[in-house]
Amino acid sequence: MSASTTQRDDSGESGLVLTAAAIAEAVGGRLVGDGMVRVARVAPLDRATGQDLSFLAAAKYAAAFTASRAGVVLVAPELAETPGSVAVRIVVERPQEALLTLLPRFHRAPAATPGIHATAIVGSGARLGAGVSVGAYAVIGDGAVIGDGVVIGSHCVIGAGVEIGAASQLYPGVTVYSGAVIGRRVTIHSGARIASDGFGYVQRPANGGVEHVKIPHVGRCVIEDDVEIGANTTIDRGSIDDTVVGAGTKIDNLVQIAHNVRIGRACLIMAQVGIAGSVRVEDGAMLLGQVGVSGHHTVGKGARLAAQAGVFGDIPAGETWSGYPARPHKEALRAQAALFKLPSLLRRIERLLDRTPESE
Amino acid sequence: MSASTTQRDDSGESGLVLTAAAIAEAVGGRLVGDGMVRVARVAPLDRATGQDLSFLAAAKYAAAFTASRAGVVLVAPELAETPGSVAVRIVVERPQEALLTLLPRFHRAPAATPGIHATAIVGSGARLGAGVSVGAYAVIGDGAVIGDGVVIGSHCVIGAGVEIGAASQLYPGVTVYSGAVIGRRVTIHSGARIASDGFGYVQRPANGGVEHVKIPHVGRCVIEDDVEIGANTTIDRGSIDDTVVGAGTKIDNLVQIAHNVRIGRACLIMAQVGIAGSVRVEDGAMLLGQVGVSGHHTVGKGARLAAQAGVFGDIPAGETWSGYPARPHKEALRAQAALFKLPSLLRRIERLLDRTPESE
Amino acid sequence: MSASTTQRDDSGESGLVLTAAAIAEAVGGRLVGDGMVRVARVAPLDRATGQDLSFLAAAKYAAAFTASRAGVVLVAPELAETPGSVAVRIVVERPQEALLTLLPRFHRAPAATPGIHATAIVGSGARLGAGVSVGAYAVIGDGAVIGDGVVIGSHCVIGAGVEIGAASQLYPGVTVYSGAVIGRRVTIHSGARIASDGFGYVQRPANGGVEHVKIPHVGRCVIEDDVEIGANTTIDRGSIDDTVVGAGTKIDNLVQIAHNVRIGRACLIMAQVGIAGSVRVEDGAMLLGQVGVSGHHTVGKGARLAAQAGVFGDIPAGETWSGYPARPHKEALRAQAALFKLPSLLRRIERLLDRTPESE
Q1: Strand, helix or coil for residue B267
Q2: Looking at residue B182, what is its pLDDT?
Q3: Counting CB atoms within 10 angstroms of each CB, which of B233, C30, C248, C320 has the fewest?
Q4: Cβ(C78)–Cβ(C58) under 8 Å?
Q5: Which residues in chain A are contacts of B340 at CB distance < 8 A?
Q6: CB under 8 Å to C207, separation ≥6 — which residues?
Q7: Tens-digit pLDDT profile for residues B214-232
Q8: Which residues from chain C sit within 8 angstroms of residue A323, using beta carbons?
Q9: Rounded CA separation B349/C48 (Å)
């Protein structure tokens, strides 16, 4: 296995080399030290070397700063004078945020070397674009269409007829069933299952009980451009209509998206969320961890669902809802506050009611 | 890789060809047009061609119907006169339901070509029945027993001594640990893990704290006939006794079933449900998405648990429970309604109590 | 494929042979019968043979005992005289517990035969210790460092530069991304994903909406010694700082651990728990099934969270909290009890309020 093949799996230590001056300009910070010092990576203070950029955002890390050997450090204004021998300081408000904002510019994903690994199996009639990279033991089905520059990790299995748009990346061990259509610049993490059969059965009486007869799934699973899908997430194909994930939407790990769901553009779906069949999630909605949305409802544009919310109805656009069953967040908070006051009042209320004659 | 090999991964575009007359008879509908028109697949109106069957169930899709090129369309009675040039209409109540009921007859799962892929590894002493199909890079352990007509997808790993009954199908990337016994006509979706170790430890004092010493798992994981298991679902083997999933039970994606659980026949277990150790789920029970059942309880025959219910006791047969902690559904609804009335009353109640002298 | 290769996947039928006398001594039980009878495995009464150890803990299993052919049975004192022909009885309080306690001594994990399977791919510069076993189709990245006696199951993918400590075991189909550092005696079950990218984006206005720009993840994912990780669990790498799972912590199936989380030593994290970014879980904490902990909070040392608890704040050390939003368990129970009393009181309260003039 060549170096380039495994580098594909590396989410990345290699990156651009930036000067301290360029960094200071990018974050709008004040440079203290030699602007020509160069850094190539990012690391926390205690692991940073002279080639690393780091940050100091809170006084409790002052000692780590003093001991650090980082090349360049983003430092909060109130900590600008912390003693230490780092080569260059850049004084900036909210250094961690500045660093995160900087990372996408600073960091360069490792280039995958184009080529089909000798052990990969490509089905008959499959069409692979320019610069495609296919890892060890990957299996690509008959008639699949793989766009330019796509990276397919080792052990991925791509069903017959699947389409994957240019510059998409599949990490190792992804399964894409037939019926999937995947856009451009899509990232799919390890173990995700795309276009598996939905959970649909017709009930039929049998032997004094009921029998569940499987409904074949012939709808597609359409993943639009710039979507990211987390590790071990499952997205079912539609029964007749399609399941669709809109452009720019980001999905975390272990999420379940059922058949015929339609998710809009630029949504954020956090870990372990479950979205039942035929739900619509409109553009820009945000579903926090472990939210559940029951079937056929709509989560409106830009709505926000707090962690663990249980949704059993439509959620109006732009609102924040929480709790079980989900309610407007303020209302849910008031109900919870009242609930926790209740036990101490209950005995007094009961006594009062007992003493008060009730007129019929 | 031959065409037939990859078709195995295709959940299916090929199917029987049916005439419009046969369809009308099957759904009990009224035929309008040429009964000899033939269709071979199912598609939504906007993607249907002359070889496709589609449906029109709601007025909002009338324009799609008018523009559609479908060969045959199931149409609701009130929409029977919608203009359009589709070759044949079949007028029927609830067209979508009719189509779903029809699909299992209409649709034929793609035939997997029997044979062991050249890259598959079969352990010593393993016995494979007639017509077995084993995909690329699958690994079958020593002494495994694989029944007639079983389809094992690419990248599956089957542990030593595992038994799989006739006509079962494993999609790509399933792991079956040793200790599993799988029945006939079982379908297991990609990434499911069957018979992994349960979560069991003995606590032992160590270094001022506690140490968790693993309990080896030697019970089996028994999956009976006609079970379907969703993508990335995990089912642990028993510690000493077995874990059992009863015949005809259907399990969705990302479900967790712990050691020693016993699930009855024809249950429906929806996505992200978690069932803790030694729980019993009796025949025909239905657990909706994200339900959690804590250890050692029983969910009675035909009981129904609403989405996200948290079960901390036994559930009587035939009842519907919901909420956290789960209560009979009507009682839970009343409690929730009262809770959301409470904040507006609370201030009035507090004032009333403050004004009322409490006799000791 | 040799017998030894597949035995690796066997969580174990082989074991030590123990005499009845040794067992009686180990559990502090009273031996009835021939102390030299030997057993080699554990099985429930109905499946036990003369080579098996079993147990009888409840009267409802008396008939199974009578019919059993087990070699040695642990029997509860009140059932010591149950008729039957098993060779040896050992009378002991809580026989099942005694058996579980015994299992780790009794049972020996199957020895994996050292060696690299012919189909495994090992990257350039990777260093493998003595006695390492690498299964079929495993892919080990460039520069990875694999300690003595490590067992890597078939179909595992190990990223470039990953370190795995001595005597660790990865079951088939585990993916370890670059950026992971795994300790000694760590067990990782099938389908777990270690060091995948965290869910982190910077929002940027775009086309009238918002665009989510990925934050590259360059922190590590550190798994300390003696950790066990369940099937299909996902643990993200840190964004800049590390994600850390402390020594001796045990993690069940389908758990999500987000970026920058720090979990202490000897914690128990049960199935489907979700831990959001930057949470700290201190030593010995116990999180039951489906618990969710929202970002940046701390779960104190030895704290215990009941199943499905939703945590939106810090949890004090040593306390048990439950419910949504999580509260001290006793307080949560009182609130729930009050809630379910409320509907019957509410009408009476409303009438009382209506009859009572409210002074301003």
Answers
A1: coil
A2: 98
A3: C30
A4: no
A5: 327, 331, 335
A6: none
A7: 888 888 999 999 999 999 9
A8: 324
A9: 65
Place domain A17-106 in its CATH homologous superfamily.
MurE/MurF, N-terminal domain (3.40.1390.10)
CA distance to partner chain B, nearest, from residue C58 (Å): 14
Q: Does A123 touch chain B (CB under 8 A)?
A: yes
Q: Which of C259, C296, C297, C329 is catalytic?
A: C259
Residues of B with Cβ-Cβ distance to A324 under 8 angstroms = 308, 323-324
Q: Say whether A1 and C160 touch across the interface (CB within 8 A).
A: no
pLDDT at C145: 98
Short-list C278, C229, C293, CA closest to C255: C229
DSSP type of residue B107 = B
Per the CB < 8 A criterion, the answer to whether B178 and B197 are in contact is no
Considering the domain C115-328, what is its CATH architecture? 3 Solenoid (2.160)
Q: Number of residue pairs across A and B with CB atoms under 8 Å?
A: 219
Cα A194 from chain centroid (whole Å): 15
Q: Is C346 exposed, middle or buried (0-12, 13-18, 19+ CB in 10 A)?
A: middle
B9 in Cβ contact with A140 (< 8 Å): no
Q: Which chain B residues are Cβ-neighbours of A258 within 8 angstroms?
A: 271
Domain boundaries, chain A: 17-106, 174-328
Mean pLDDT value across residues A75-85 = 95
Fold identical between B17-106 and B174-328? no
Distance, in angstroms, between C73 CA and closest chain A CA? 39
Chains that touch A (3 or more CB pairs under 8 A): B, C
Angle B118-B123-B126 from CA coordinates, rounded to 5°? 105
Predicted confidence (pLDDT) per residue in C101-111, tens digit: 777 766 656 66
pLDDT in tens, B102-160: 777 666 566 678 899 999 999 999 999 999 999 999 999 999 999 999 999 999 999 99
Paired strand residues for A53: A42, A72
Nearest-by-CA chain A residue for C199? A252
ipTM of the complex: 0.89
Q: Which of residues 238-297 of B touch A (CB under 8 A)?
A: 248, 250, 252-254, 265-266, 268, 270-272, 283-284, 288-290
Cα–Cα distance, B201 to C327 (Å, whole number): 27
Are the C-beta atoms of residues C257 and C243 closer than 8 Å to each other?
yes
Give the minimum alpha-carbon distance from A10 to chain C in angstroms, rounded to a whole number.
5
For CA atoms B70, B73, B79, B85, the dihedral sign is: positive
**Mutation for testing the C interface, residue in A13, A185, A253, A355 having most C CBs under 10 Å:** A253
| Residue B7 near residue B112 (C-beta atoms within 8 A) | yes
From the list B149, B146, B148, the residue with the least C-alpha distance to B125 is B146
Average pLDDT of the residues in B171-199 = 97
Region A174-178: what's the mean pLDDT?
97
Which of A348-352, B185-189, C4-8 is predicted least confidently? C4-8
pLDDT digits (tens, 9 = 90+) for C56-65: 998 989 999 9
Check: CATH 2.160.10.10 for B174-328? yes
From its phi and psi, is residue B157 left (phi > 0), alpha (psi between -120 and 50) or beta? beta
Residues of B taking part in catalysis: 259
pTM for the model: 0.91
Put simply, the chain A residues between 160 and 219 with a CB less than 8 A from any chain C CB are 171-173, 187, 189-191
Paired sense of beta strands C139-140 and A30-32, if any: unpaired
Contact residues, chain B, for A196 at CB < 8 Å: 11, 171, 189-190, 230-231, 253
Three-state SS across B199-265?
A: CCEEEEEECCEEEEEECCCCCCEEECCCCEECCCCEEECCCCCCEEECCCCEECCCCEECCCCEECC
Which residues in chain C come in under a pLDDT of 50?
1-14, 360
Measured between beta carbons, the chain B residues lying within 8 angstroms of C6 are 123, 139, 141-142, 159-160
Substitution target in C324, C333, C352 with the highest count of A β-carbons within 10 Å is: C324
